[in-house]
Design goal:
Layout lengths: L10 E9 L4 H12 L5 E5 L4 E7 L4 H10 L3 E4 L22 H23 L8 H16 L1 H12 L5 H22 L23 H25 L1 H8 L4 E7 L13 E7 L8 E4 L9 E5 L2 E4 L1 H4 L5 E3 L4 E2 L4 E2 L4 E5 L7 H15 L6 H26 L4 H14 L3 H20 L2 E3 L2 H9 L2 E5 H5 E12 L5 H12 L5 H7 L7 E7 L3 E6 L2 E6 L1 H4 L11 E7 L2 E12 L3 H10 L3 E5 L4 H11 L3 E3 L4 H13 L4 E5 L5 H6 L2 E5 L4 H6 L2 E3 L5 H36 L5 H20 L7
Parallel strand pairs: 15-22, 15-24, 22-23, 24-25, 25-26
Antiparallel strand pairs: 1-3, 1-4, 2-3, 5-6, 5-7, 7-13, 8-11, 8-13, 9-10, 9-12, 14-26, 16-21, 17-18, 18-19, 19-20, 20-21
Helix pairs in contact: 3-4, 3-7, 4-6, 4-7, 5-6, 6-7, 6-11, 6-12, 7-13, 8-10, 11-12, 11-24, 12-24, 13-24, 13-25, 14-24, 16-17, 19-24, 24-25
């Protein structure tokens, strides 16, 4: 009997937080196991430690959890509306074996214990009677507790016949430690007068390698800590997004005796409550400067609302009775009474949070080269060690000599330089980046920069300043420019509108009386005894001439006479044109993507020489544009600074945020430009590519050392002590090669 066919219409989405994964192969195994369930379509992301599962109706969620547990891991079901809410409690912030805080504790303890182990083992003048027992006491916590995440991952991988970088570390560390124990109790290494000897040939049974086990563990922990820290920061995008919302709201309630009879004045009371206590249909008050608590409809008042976080448009939107407003946007003008139409997970803010989360979960994780190579390197090393043991027995040597040679192979293959390859280059590269104003989240970012061929640029705050300023002053015939500027600046000084603030900064201002705001039209008042109005040109007169510049034009009249027009606009940053040219020189095709009006977008694009423009787009449109470019086979970098860019930043192959932008954009990105200068994006791409080249070179030489040394160990021609020195030299090469990045951009 065949299984029933499940269509998308009969399935729903379940999101799981998965614990215990140590590498991308773990995610692949869980995904494969879940997809074997009838009607299930699962995607597991190692970077975010989440699984998105399409399940047929009627399938118990416990079946999913049991399936994950059968694979060797654990999971919890996320609650509905968990995007940044309580349902996210078990997400990337959990303090499991690979949590950032847990890994940091292990790293600090391992480093403190490993340093004296290294000095005592490698500097003979420091050695004293019974020094090996001190080293044993110091190294044991590092090899057991410190390296436990790698041992645990090795056990899990072995159950499924897989090998990863964790396996290589665990086997190498274990071999060095067990050899040393053998030497301590059976080879004379524990004798009071024991000193390390330097000889070229032979394998001394009295030699210990606690420093190899401890130092390798410490450096691999450093790499995993950097990775865990980057993963933890990626979840900060959702927290920052939800933190944008108001925490409290002033709700209007019926007061005592309100509406007591026909024609009676209705009485209300104002009550401040947590936003979570707000219900659809409630009417709430938004005063000037306050955030709008949730999506709703204006039932009383008029104002200008800053919606740039949603639309990216730099000019606030005028709203009045009957208009809709969005939660977390800012009321910049008059007092509003709003009726809530959507709350909680139904709001646009929550929908944006889901967009960011889905983009992060769907973002392809790049498996590092070390994991890919270790998939065959580890089994090969173990096989060679067994082959060495058997070969020495067949050739007539005793079991002890065969065992010594076999273990020597494992010790020499221990990935000391390999453990340094990625973290040292990353630490030097990120340190140099910080000096240049570039923050790099993690090693996967470097892999992304190599493939980028398209760069999508937000307009407001990225290419432009994001601040309104006067770009044109056009006096009418017979009117002095100074008179126009003085009267307009004085009148607008009484307004809080961003356009008004730009005009108010034109010149010194005087006193204004009888000031009045006319919602959606403009303002009026008396300046120097003259009745002045400033606002929309069609409010002032029917035939106001328009200047040939893009922006928001304000017409000004005094005592019924047109004085002229003043145009304000968001201006292009001085470095943007050259930055776009430099990005193009790196092989990246620029695309301008903005929620602003098409005329404004095309004007900015022409100024910085960008041919491809998409304007008047929503956050959803930005995300879809990035995904559409990716579906064309392009590798896309997204540069932005606003909340409305967050989903696109998360979905892009490389997300670059302006450090002067919102916390949400920074959290959702891979690179952050501290100075908020687009020119720094060019340096960021170059530095990331240089760091990646360094890591690849380090990995090559680290593996090359192992490949060259193993045959010598198999033949008994290489003393493990000399092998330890060779490993130290290979590590010095890796560190020195990484330090070259300090000169980047000098």
């Amino acid at each position: 009997m065949s299984h029933p066919t499940h269509t998308d219409d009969t399935r729903h989405t379940v999101r799981l937080d998965v614990q215990g994964m140590s590498c991308t192969s773990c995610a692949m195994r869980i995904e494969k196991k879940l997809n074997r369930l009838d009607g299930v379509d699962a995607s597991v992301n190692y970077a975010t430690e989440k699984a998105t599962v399409q399940v047929p109706e009627g399938l118990d969620h416990r079946t999913l959890l049991e399936t994950v547990e059968q694979t060797g891991y654990s999971a919890t079901v996320r609650s509905e509306g968990g995007s940044g809410g309580s349902g996210d409690d078990h997400g990337a912030d959990h303090e499991g074996l690979h949590g950032a805080a847990s890994m940091r504790r292990r790293l600090l303890v391992a480093a403190a214990l490993s340093l004296p182990v290294l000095l005592l083992s490698m500097v003979p003048p420091l050695q004293f009677d019974y020094w090996t027992w001190v080293v044993l006491a110091l190294a044991t916590p590092v090899v057991t507790w410190g390296a436990w995440p790698f041992h645990r991952a090795t056990i899990t991988n072995a159950r499924h016949g897989a090998a990863t970088m964790d396996t290589l570390v665990s086997v190498g560390v274990g071999a060095a430690y067990l050899w040393s124990l053998w030497a301590m109790f059976l080879g004379g290494a524990g004798d009071p007068g024991m000193r390390m000897e330097w000889s070229l040939l032979g394998t001394g049974m009295h030699e210990v390698y606690f420093e190899v086990a401890a130092v390798v563990t410490t450096f691999i922990l450093a790499g995993h800590y950097l990775e865990a820290n980057a993963k933890q920061r990626s979840s900060a995008a959702l927290r920052a997004l939800m933190d944008l919302g108001a925490k409290e709201v002033t709700v209007r309630r019926d007061g005592p005796g309100g509406g007591a009879g026909p024609g009676a004045a209705h009485r209300y009371t104002e009550v401040t409550v947590p936003v979570d206590d707000l219900h659809a249909g409630d009417e709430f008050i938004v005063r000037p400067g306050e955030k709008i608590a949730t999506d709703g409809e204006v039932v009383e008042g008029a104002s200008a609302v800053d919606e740039s976080m949603l639309t990216g448009e730099s000019v606030p939107v005028e709203v009045t009775i009957g208009d809709t407003v969005t939660g977390a946007t800012v009321n910049q003008g008059g007092r509003l009474l709003v009726r809530a139409t959507a709350i909680g997970s139904d709001t646009q803010l929550a929908q944006m949070a889901r967009l960011v989360e889905e983009a992060q979960e769907g973002k392809a994780d790049v498996q590092r080269l070390a994991d890919r190579v270790s998939a065959w390197f580890v089994p090969a090393v173990i096989a060679l060690a067994l082959l060495t043991f058997l070969a020495w027995l067949v050739l007539g040597d005793d079991v002890t000599a065969a065992f010594v040679a076999a273990v020597a192979v494992l010790i020499i293959a221990c990935p000391c330089a390999l453990g340094l390859a990625t973290p040292t280059a990353l630490m030097v590269g990120t340190g140099r980046g910080a000096q240049l104003g570039i923050l790099i989240k993690g090693p996967q970012v470097l892999e992304s920069t190599r493939r980028i061929d398209t760069v999508v640029l937000d307009k407001t705050g990225t290419i432009t300043t994001g601040v309104m300023s006067v770009v044109d002053v056009s006096p009418a015939d017979g009117v002095r420019r100074t008179d126009l500027e003085h009267l307009a600046a004085t009148l607008e000084h009484a307004s809080e509108h961003p356009v008004a603030r730009a005009i108010a900064g034109l010149t010194d201002t005087g006193e204004v009386t009888d000031f009045a705001n006319h919602p959606g039209l403009g303002v009026s008042g008396v300046v120097d005894g003259r009745h002045v109005r400033a606002g929309r040109p069609d409010w002032i007169a029917d035939d106001v001439p328009r200047p040939e510049v893009d922006g928001t034009t304000i017409a000004v009249e005094a005592d019924g006479q047109l004085l002229g027009t003043i145009t304000v606009a968001d201006t292009v940053k001085g470095s943007s044109r050259q930055a776009v040219a430099d990005l193009r020189a790196l092989g990246l095709e620029p695309v301008l993507l903005t929620g602003d009006a098409r005329a404004v977008a095309e004007s900015v694009a022409a100024e910085v020489v960008i041919e491809r423009v998409q304007a008047e787009v929503t956050p959803d449109d930005k995300l879809r544009t990035v995904q559409a470019l990716q579906s064309e086979g392009r590798a896309v970098a997204m540069v932005g600074d606003g909340v409305n860019d967050a989903a696109a930043l998360a979905a892009a192959d490389l997300g670059i945020a302006m450090g002067t932008g919102t916390d949400v954009a920074i959290a959702a990105s891979d690179l952050t430009l501290v100075k908020g200068d687009l020119a720094t994006a060019v340096d960021a791409v170059r530095l990331a590519r240089a760091t990646l080249r360094t890591i690849r070179m380090n990995l090559f030489w680290a593996f090359a050392y192992n490949v060259a040394a193993i045959p010598l160990a198999m033949s008994g021609l290489l003393n493990p002590m000399i092998a330890g020195l060779a490993m130290a030299l290979s590590s010095v090469f890796v560190v020195t090669n990484s330090l070259r990045l300090r000169r980047f951009g000098a």
